[in-house]
């Protein structure tokens, strides 16, 4: 599933070869930022886009089937209500340094509902880097991130915005009480 997800992230985000983003940047006169991840690629034609959409919908359906199958794992016999996960491998984004979209791009490909909520703030005393197994924290500087907000995202199934917003309010209030 991960290999397919990576394919859909790359292919669906640049159907027009990056032309739309380039046009808007041209209108504003702003340069393309490195974290924009848009490269000029060949345009897809209508048949290619239709094929990609069919494959993407099948992929989304297989993930939805997996989500529904979690009812076999819960005590209630109901599927999991939401996924709680980080939004990034760091606290708040430092302009020009956001290079990892792995925690959020799958939400877009799968067309899921999500909301990001603040839960705490980074602390240079508490949040020291012990090891960096995956190389994601090479730019981490405890002093630079000190007091920066840290958020999590709650992810739910398609069209469950009200449920996810209610869960977000509950989690946010629970964290505030700590």
Q: Tally of extended strands? A: 3
Unreliable spans: none
Compute the number of structural domains: 2
Arrangement of strands in the largest sheet:
1-3-2
Number of helices: 6
Q: What is the 3D shape?
A: flat
- Our Rg estimate from Cα atoms comes to 19 Å
Helical content, roughly? 25-40%
State the order of secondary-structure elements, H for helix, E for strand: HHHEHEHEH
Task: Compute the average pLDDT.
Answer: 82
Largest sheet: 3 strands, antiparallel
Instruction: Name the structural class.
Output: alpha+beta
Distance between the termini: 37 Å
Provide the β-strand percentage band.
Answer: 5-15%
Structure description:
The protein is of the alpha+beta class and 178 residues long. The chain has 2 domains: 80 residues; 98 residues, no CATH class. Helices cover 40% and strands 12% of the residues. A 3-stranded antiparallel sheet has the order 1-3-2. Helix 1 runs antiparallel to helix 3.
